[in-house]
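I had to read the description of the data format several times before I understood it. The format is easy to grasp once an entry is in front of the reader. For illustration, here is how one protein appears when written out as sequence plus structure tokens:
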Amino acid sequence: MERLYKKLESYGQSDYYPFHMPGHKRSFCPETLKNPYEIDITEIEGFDDLHHADGILEEGMARMANAVGALLGTLGMTDYYGAGVLTVFAFYLFRGRKWWCLLGQVLTLYWINVVLLGGLMYPIRLFGMEFELCQQGLALLALVPIWLYRGRQGCHSKPFQYACYAFYPVHMLLLVLALNFVNR
């Protein structure tokens, strides 16, 4: 931050005369304020601008877009409301295959799905110990196929296509049959 301020300060003392608003005349503010027009950076070569954002402006714009997206997702009652937007943001923020990206995906999805969304808890007894499993926490299992994706189209034969079409209704039928068997 200190380096940025030094660059802005040297720019303010240069003979460059900007002909745009705000502060195109570099006039001074009242005594109590510093001169913000002196460090007007909207047209400096190599600095960030709103039209081709890069660096700190790009990061700030992405954060604001996600905050607005989360708010609009909640107000508009879209799927998963703002949490769905936050999930997309988490994958954008932690894109890549480095270990810290994968850890970031796990931690942010845990926070979104378990802490933020919470919801129904399933009591589970395992080895004589009782646990509670958050239903929404099972969404973390979706990370496995996401991580296995390598950017290439997979198998696309006709039998595989029809097997994919049949999977959902067949597995639902099997779950209903298992539930009926258990509840006898």
